[in-house]
Specification:
By secondary structure, the chain is α/β, with parallel strands linked by helices. The radius of gyration is 18 Å and the shape is elongated. It is built from 10 helices and 6 strands. Helices cover 46% and strands 11% of the residues.
């Protein structure tokens, strides 16, 4: 349904990595450093090739009980990826990777756009597949505009599980119909939007990620700074 036919939300919820924070760029840089320092004589994979393997392990571990925190999952996903690719795993590489996530900066338009949305009276919350300690470094770069942060560590579940969103809505004291979720990760957030029924705006940053075949978001824009225009058209701003 078009946004202008729906009530103005109380809260805007955001995916963090890839939506607000430069996840792909930061992860590519971290993996490039790990590979460049790996003591192997064989040909090394490119960072993109490595991350294809790493992503499969990361998402698989998130879906496998018992629940583990994101730092543990990152270490194990890196170890398994190194093993698959015949590379030497070193614990210091995992710590560098985890520390690099906390240091990843926001996209250029993000802080200014969050300020506009906050000044318009929206309350802003992040719902993220990470740990409190890891995301703290990213939140510190968002200009003090974020009201709440909900993590997989707090919920004991990773997206696309309904559990993390249920935890978020219970914590905020709202129903799914009282929020609009803004994200760049179709395979995680869109699956939850489809199953739960919350409104969703996709930030399609041209990464090649595709919508799910059985779901279409309520609106799609290329960057976060286009969201205020959507809201003006809807009469929300």
């Amino acid at each position: 349904m078009p946004l202008n036919e729906l009530p103005r939300p109380q809260w805007l919820t955001f995916d963090c990595y890839g939506t607000l924070i430069q996840w792909d760029e930061g992860l590519q840089a971290a993996v490039a450093r790990i590979l460049a320092d790996n003591p192997q004589e064989r040909a090394l994979p490119t960072p993109s090739e490595f991350l294809h393997v790493y992503d499969e392990h990361e998402h698989g571990l998130e879906r496998t009980p018992p629940h583990r925190n994101f730092a543990e999952i990152s270490r194990e996903a890196l170890r398994l990826s190194m093993q698959d690719l015949g590379l030497a795993y070193r614990p210091k590489d995992a710590e560098m990777l985890i520390n690099s996530i906390s240091a990843m900066p926001p996209f250029p338009e993000v802080v200014g756009t969050l300020s506009v949305l906050k000044q318009a009276g929206f309350r802003l919350c992040i719902i993220s597949n990470t740990d409190d300690q890891i995301i703290a470094g990213n939140i510190a770069q968002l200009g003090g505009h974020i009201d709440r942060v909900i993590t997989a560590e707090q919920a004991g579940a990773y997206k696309p599980s309904r559990k993390i969103f249920a935890h978020a809505y219970n914590s905020l004291g709202v129903s799914p119909g009282e929020v609009v979720h803004i994200c760049a990760s179709p395979h995680l957030d869109h699956a939850a939007a489809r199953d739960i029924g919350f409104r969703c705006i996709w930030i399609d940053r041209g990464t090649g990620r595709q919508c799910l075949p059985d779901y279409r978001p309520d609106a799609t824009v290329p960057t976060l700074d286009r969201v205020p225009d959507l809201f003006r058209t809807a009469g929300w701003l």
